[in-house]
Amino acid sequence: MTDRLPHEKGFHVSWDQIHRDARALAWRLDGKGPDDGGWRAVVAITRGGMAPAMIVSRELDIRVVDTISVKSYNHQAQTQPRVIKAPQADIMGDQGEGVLVVDDLVDTGKTLELVRKLYPKAHFATVYAKPEGRGMVDTYITEVSQDTWIFFPWDMALQYVEPYRGRD
Ligand SMILES: O=P(O)(O)OC[C@H]1O[C@H](OP(=O)(O)OP(=O)(O)O)[C@H](O)[C@@H]1O
Ligand SMILES: Nc1nc2[nH]cnc2c(=O)[nH]1
Ligand SMILES: [Mg+2]
């Protein structure tokens, strides 16, 4: 996409931080499921939604967990989102009612827009949200600005850096 804000800022999330934020998301979702027995299942939007979905399902003691694979980005370049793998039909029911769909973040909202069309009655939750896609999420924890790129711990590695006085 050409008319989009560049990602000028970086928001670096550690394992500890994503663990705490995903837990906070779970606690916020607790008790918000259907009256007749709560959330039936958690569906992670792979791949980024898998770690948060695991933490949410653990916190809320939900044992039925599935995935939907949506590919939207090639590194930082956005492409048309497409479903590569769908969740089990009997888990989703007719329109996803009682199912918690979890992703790490919403940016433009294109990924969630696609999944919402498929399962309009599911509940959509992300850990992080940017303003453009915020309207696509039912529940989220932390908002960052649109020109921020979020770096997750699974995409990072610890690296040696030269001491300040050692640089040329
Ligand atoms: O709101 P959007 O603009 O659609 O962007 C959000 C999506 O982009 C990233 O996934 P990506 O497609 O990069 O795949 P990944 O989860 O496998 O890294 C992120 O994990 C969200 O799923
Ligand atoms: N890691 C990562 N993936 C994204 N996909 C869309 N926006 C983002 C972002 O800010 N960070
Ligand atoms: Mg993703």
Automatic annotation (TrEMBL):
Keywords: Cell membrane, Glycosyltransferase, Magnesium, Membrane, Metal-binding, Purine salvage, Transferase. Its cofactor is Mg(2+). Belongs to the purine/pyrimidine phosphoribosyltransferase family. XGPT subfamily. It comes from Albidovulum marisflavi. This is Xanthine-guanine phosphoribosyltransferase. SUPFAM superfamilies: PRTase-like. Mg(2+) binds at residue 104. Gene3D superfamilies: 3.40.50.2020. It catalyses: XMP + diphosphate = xanthine + 5-phospho-alpha-D-ribose 1-diphosphate; IMP + diphosphate = hypoxanthine + 5-phospho-alpha-D-ribose 1-diphosphate; GMP + diphosphate = guanine + 5-phospho-alpha-D-ribose 1-diphosphate. It is found in: Cell membrane. Xanthine binds at residues 107, 150. HAMAP family: XGPRT. Homotetramer. It is a peripheral membrane protein. Guanine binds at residues 107, 150. The keyword Transferase applies.
